[in-house]
Amino acid sequence: MHPLYHILARAANRNRVKPGEFIVVKVDLAEINDLYLQVILSFREMGGDKVWDPRKVSFVMDHYAPAPTIKAAENQKKMREFAKEQGIKHFFDINRGVCHQVMPEEGLVWPGMILVATDSHTTTHGAFGAFSTGIGATDMAAVLLTGEIWLRVPEIIKINITGKTKKGIMAKDIILYIISQLGTDVALYKAIEYTGEVVSEISLDERLVICNMSVEMGAKATYIKPDKKVWNYLSQVKHQKVQKDMSIKQLGEKENEVYESVYNFDISKLEPQVALPHRVNNVVSISQAAGKPIHQALIGTCTGGRINDIKTAAEIIKGKKIPPQVRLLVIPASSQILKKCIDLGYIQILLDSGATLATPSCGPCLGAHEGVLAPGENCISTSSRNFPGRMGSTEAKIFLSSPATVAASALKGAITDPREFL
Amino acid sequence: MFESIIKGKVFKVGDDIDTDQIYPGRYLYLTLPDEIAAHAMEDIIPDFSKQIAEEDWIIVAGKNFGCGSSREHAPRAILCAGIKAIVAESFGRIFYRNAINVGLPVLKYPDIIKKVHQSDLIKINLQDGLITLYNPEKKRSIEKYPPQLLSILKSGGLISYLKKYGKYSHFTDEI
Questions:
Q1: What is the ipTM of this complex?
Q2: For chain B, which residues make up each domain, given as ranges?
Q3: Residues B72, A394: C-beta atoms closer than 8 Å
Q4: In terms of residue numbers, what domain contains A308?
Q5: Considering only CB atoms, which chain B residues are within 8 Å of A23?
Q6: Do residue A156 and residue A183 come from a single domain?
Q7: CATH of the domain at A326
Q8: Cα dihedral: A337, A339, A340, A343 (round 10)
Q9: Domain check: are A177 and A104 in the same one?
Q10: Helix (H) or strand (E) holding B148
Q11: A23, B171: Cβ pair inside 8 Å?
């Protein structure tokens, strides 16, 4: 069986699972963010008194960190009270960062586990060999009550990425290109496994970008077979190597016939990519977007706020000034990343250039706070979505690109090919 | 109360209607049904709640309706605004689950968007898997609802389902 099917079968207490089957699986970690007080409301409405296992529940205050409105503050307050009352082991307040970065840093993600979280970008953790998927508030309330969730066993698509990446090309360019070629619904109700030399060569940070944005093709989950880079990371964050009752062999098993379809991408000739408003698959090469004036540039979020992203931007921006008509927002994905970037001098470089630093969190990505857009403004962003109104006004335009392209564009005040600075 | 037969007028929308368009992120802190309902589809159809105030309506959409975020506010807003069901070519998977969990019937039907006009009457029979179009009158079979999911809808959503059964009683045996 495919490793994802091994994971699901183990969690469903079955020998085998087949695509299309409905199964009920035991959850290894359930994570809730501060958007969804509804989780607690639904839990109470279901008659919930005690969560099934407070050691397997995590709360992360990230979408509204720190609280921008009285109502958001009240919601967070109620979540803190709930977590305290229930003895929730893994509670992370507004000082910690975005859930998809905080969970791995805290040793809460490992190969072979079942992870559900109230955020669509939960597909990120397939990069660690976990089965991880986003769910809604009432689904989550049911998990808190029963420790279980029903799933339809997904078909699996294989995406094989080969070739030699050119200078200035990042994982974000690769995944934007793939989304533009395959569309926003190719993986609906399905999982995606990524393979190929490019996937092996890129850093874990870069793999996370690819798995994170897979939800923009509809994916339910992703998978990259864990390798040395994953094992090294896991040993640094001091947590279990593999899910109990699973073997490394099961997580690496090859069985090609299980794939519903296979797509091959040679990215040797790929140029920097930009997703134009207002769809993630509305992607062009940099030459077709270059010159478009921008008002705001965002480096941050669960997609593009990791060390490699901030380092790339700092290297491009070092010793230069952001022009006065541009606001460059830097929002590290976690407090650990912020501290490391301070130690490595990246934050100093960016502040010296005129950047604005905000609290590690989701930032303005979903239009909540920390830099929402006014009508008529253009923003180039390392985040994942450019839907109308996503980052504030529906009359603002969001362009998605790699951190390198965002940094180069911030310097020029217009969308710019980052290779000019490399 | 669960009704197996749903009748309503068609409210047409296009492809890839994402959850930010269905329910803007700036209102995610709201939790009360009436407050949420007031912002349904606000950014793309500003007078949506007014347009559907009279009579029963069924949203008919193209592909990938509800793609994007995991916000349960999206189907809640549509349900609380009074929409009876959604028929689409396909749905964003988290939206699909969320809709069933809050008790909003969602049905997949290929090319539905090309087969109906705005304000046409349609009838859905969830139990038998039938959809009836009236302009011109045609009965068509739709993919039968998986019994597991129908069991949640019949309970009026996941909260009532779990109150009644305490666990996923309809999911453990193979169909």
A1: 0.95
A2: 5-165
A3: no
A4: 273-421
A5: 171
A6: yes
A7: 3.30.499.10
A8: 160
A9: yes
A10: helix B147-155
A11: yes
- The CATH fold assigned to B5-165 is Aconitase; domain 4 (3.20.19)
Same domain, A149 and A228: yes
- Please give, rounded to a whole number of angstroms, the shortest distance from the CA of B172 to a CA of chain A: 6
Tens-of-pLDDT digits for all 422 residues of chain A?
Answer: 999 999 999 999 999 999 999 999 999 999 999 999 999 999 999 999 999 999 999 999 999 999 999 999 999 999 999 999 999 999 999 999 999 999 999 999 999 999 999 999 999 999 999 999 999 999 999 999 999 999 999 999 999 999 999 999 999 999 999 999 999 999 999 999 999 999 999 999 999 999 999 999 999 999 999 999 999 999 988 776 788 888 888 898 776 668 999 999 999 999 999 999 999 999 999 999 999 999 999 999 999 999 999 999 999 999 999 999 999 999 999 999 999 999 999 999 999 999 999 999 999 999 999 999 999 999 999 999 999 999 999 999 999 999 999 999 999 999 999 999 99
Q: Is the Cβ pair B67, A72 closer than 8 Å?
A: no
Whether A8 contacts chain B with CB within 8 A: no
Of B21, B26, B157, the CB nearest to A387: B21
Q: Are residues A210 and A285 in the same domain?
A: no
What residue of A is the nearest CA neighbor of B63?
Answer: A185
